[in-house]
Amino acid sequence: MPAVLIPSFLLYCFVGGITPGPANLCSLRAALRYGRGPALRQWRGLFTGFFLDAMGAVAVTWLLGAALDQYVGVLSWVGAGYLLWMAWHILRSSGVDAEHDPAAPSFRTGLLVQLTNVKVILFCITALSSFVLPHSSALRDLLAVGLFLPFTGPVCNLVWLFAGASLQKLFANHKILIDRIMAASLALCALTLL
């Protein structure tokens, strides 16, 4: 990637990482409901999932190139289905005690959120195909950007997590309303994918 594109690439990474999406909303909800510690456990899964998505995007971009476009629609449907499933679980757990919550934050839930997060998959593929492939199709160049990408979205995700942790006491009496808003936001994310 030419040096002149680096500011645009970094702006793309920041905007893609900080805007609401499944991982950011799940981190916000986890921190609001459970606090910083459990939300950080989930974040580690989010980071790992983002890393795996980025490496998968490197492989797919390098191997398939232009043939990838036909699979984007399928990914959108899978991601939308998973977002709706998450929204349903959030709604089901609104009146449930945090200790018995089926959607409690964990490494596994964070990993699953990212591995099925179409926003992240498309974000990585777009970054690679827009900023790297027009200038180089070398695996080392794709890999260099692919290794950088997991430090963009998950770092921005921490903003959502710490905002939730700092607002936890403020929203303690409004758990059901917050869960409904989070579920509705995830459902809206799902609808925008379709």
Quick take:
With 194 residues, the protein is an all-alpha fold. The chain has one domain (3-193).
Keywords:
9 helices; 194 residues; mainly alpha
What is the topological layout?
Layout: H1 6-18, H2 22-34, H3 36-64, H4 69-93, H5 107-115, H6 118-132, H7 139-148, H8 153-167, H9 175-193
Helix pairs in contact: 1-6, 1-8, 2-3, 2-8, 2-9, 3-5, 3-6, 3-7, 3-8, 4-9, 6-7
Q: Into how many domains do the coordinates divide?
A: 1
Computed structural class: mainly alpha
User: Quick one: biggest sheet?
Assistant: none
Span from first to last CA? 32 Å
How many E-type strands? 0
- Beta-strand share of residues: under 5%
Proportion of residues in helical segments: over 70%
Outline the low-pLDDT stretches.
none
* H-E order: HHHHHHHHH
Whole-number mean pLDDT: 79
How many separate helices? 9
Q: How does the overall form come out from the CA principal axes?
A: elongated
**Rg (C-alpha, Å):** 17 Å
Describe the structure.
The protein is an all-alpha fold. It has one domain (3-193). Helices cover 76% and strands 0% of the residues. It is built from 9 helices and no strands. The longest helix has 29 residues, at 36-64.
